[in-house]
Write a structure and sequence with these properties.
Order of helices and strands: EEEEEEEEEEE
Largest sheet: 7 strands, mixed
Structural class: mainly beta
Radius of gyration: 13 Å
Number of strands: 11
Helix content: under 10%
Distance between the termini: 40 Å
Number of helices: 0
């Protein structure tokens, strides 16, 4: 199996930046497409961004496009999310996820991902 562990969350002011990391361990070779999801208080978990294993294709939600950048370092088994121009509505828990299906088609749907981390809290103050 694959274990995922997020870090890098915290408290930041409106307009600030954070960089989230997700360390991948276990059977790292089966972690294909990886993504980030956001769960605001009292709301469902929503897609933020995802990246193919090769890193040659990324997909973003409209709400973060141009502000967030997803990347991965397969040699270090780590996924990243650079978050710039943060807004109060970005507040919530951020989860990383991995798909083991070997598909090249990125999904925005939570159940398409097989492994999940515990999440890291991001709070953006107005």
């Amino acid at each position: 199996q694959v274990q995922l562990s997020e870090s890098g969350g915290g408290l930041v002011q409106d307009g600030g930046s954070l960089r989230l990391s997700c360390a991948v361990s276990g059977r790292t070779e089966i972690a294909g497409i990886m993504g980030w999801f956001h769960q605001a208080p009292g709301k469902d978990r929503e897609f933020v961004a995802a990246i193919r294993k090769s890193g040659d294709f990324t997909l973003y939600s409209d709400s973060v496009k141009g502000r967030f950048t997803i990347s991965r370092d397969n040699a270090k088994n780590t996924l990243f999310l650079q978050m710039d121009s943060l807004k109060p509505e970005d507040t919530g828990v951020y989860y990383c996820a991995a798909d083991q299906s070997r598909t090249s088609v990125i999904s925005r749907i939570t159940y398409a991902y097989d492994f999940w981390g515990q999440g890291t809290q991001v709070t953006v103050s107005a």
